[in-house]
TrEMBL record:
NCBIfam families: mal_quin_oxido, PRK05257.1-4, PRK05257.2-1, PRK05257.3-1, PRK05257.3-2, PRK13339.1. Keywords: FAD, Flavoprotein, Oxidoreductase, Tricarboxylic acid cycle. It comes from Dietzia timorensis. One of its GO terms (biological process) is tricarboxylic acid cycle. Signal peptide: none annotated. Its EC number is 1.1.5.4. It is an enzyme of class 1 (oxidoreductase). It catalyses: (S)-malate + a quinone = a quinol + oxaloacetate. This is Probable malate:quinone oxidoreductase. Belongs to the MQO family. GO terms for molecular function: (S)-2-hydroxyglutarate dehydrogenase activity; L-malate dehydrogenase (quinone) activity. It comes from the Bacteria. Its cofactor is FAD. Pfam families: Mqo.
Amino acid sequence: MTVPQGNKQTNTDVVLIGAGVMSATLGALLRRLQPDWSIEILERLNGPSQESSDAWNNAGTGHSALCELNYTPKTGDGGVDISKAVGVNEKFQVSRQFWSFGVENNLLGDPSEWINPVAHMSFVRGEEGQKYLRKRFELLSKHPLFETLEHTEDIDEISKLVPLVGKDRNPDEKVALSHIKGGTDVNFGALTRQLLGYLARTGTDVRYQAEVKNLERSTDGSWKVRYVNRALDEEHTINAKFVFVGAGGGALHLLQKSGIPEIRGIGGFPVGGQWLRCTNEELVEQHNAKVYGQAAVGAPPMSVPHLDTRIIDGKRALLFGPFAGWTPKFLKRGKFTDLPLSVRPNNFLSMAGVGVTELGLVKYLVTELAKTHEKRVETLREFMPSAESGDWEKVIAGQRVQVIKPNKKTGGTLEFGTAVVNSSDGSIAGLLGASPGASTAVDAMLDVLSRCFPDRMATWDAAIKEMVPSYGRSLSEDVTLFNEQFERSQKALKLES
């Protein structure tokens, strides 16, 4: 690449880096809350939602904790902790409320392009698995957000609910299934495109092939965002009052370049993924559920295995996985130097500490990488005993960068989840991490607003509550409000059966 020619400078109120679901959500919120602000979105690729938000690059469950067993871990006394499941589900309900507002007020178009009803199920094998899932059901079904959850250990009933799981299974095998009808499949790529369409219609400048190279704080507290137009090979600088880094795996590097002290000590651990995709249309049509199992020992949460119905661009698909992989890239279209270039003197101990404490994870990833196609199909047969190798092909999933935070005892701790990092003056913020990610985007972006614009939250309160009626209240404690908003979103999002 030649040296970019010239440097064109412009001014704006807000710059959002990355054209994924996070930036699109934050942009839509700000457009409603502060319509007089100018907003620019910079995306290094040639189109929107091509990395973490892309339908083939994420799980699409709308991580609502209805079926994902990693959100209900076992406790030391043999019980089950449901607190994280409740928290994740509440955040997903916040997203549903905002999406409903978007459809009702023409921010968004046809919701069936990105959200569709699909049953969520949890499946386990063995006596210990049965005990765990039964305990989980007993606790969750008493909670108002999960009261429609059902449970069975009868193989005939399981075969009726999910034929591919029951077919050719040993009738004497101990199995259990919890299931709930209120689940959805979400195509976050299509949702992002609709949100960006709204932003473009209302004056937001969305720039593609715009790769941010540096972030520099000005003396007045604003930010100089330097980027290169990759198509024209031109350098540009935008002077922005507020910057949000929603660049997925690329966020760590950009926040490091900003020099804010809040990013010191934080590192990233990349985890890739692969799917098995069914090529037999007859099998695809026989399955209409997201069936989640238990993660292997040492596996990261994003690798919880599931037999997954997806609806992508109006067509049903069937996936199984993901199988974890590893590459030093921080993005699917990233560089092999992403990991080494993220190591700084201030985060070296954090990253080295994780290298020592997470040997089990490293061993798991090495084992996964060594699996042949037939070995992957053998894993699939735990869910679908009749699976045949010829009916499945491998596809590459997206990259995730798990957050590494400093720890005085071990040097560093690998954290699974998402984390907001912002400067003390609120002029810049970014989102790091992975699951539950996209499905809790609205709650995460409201968190960004409260951190970065605390003096405006009182003024914005009424407008936020118009978009998210439960804002500032607990759905778990206000069952009437939960039922009202759930039914409202069922209707608005065309999820009624």
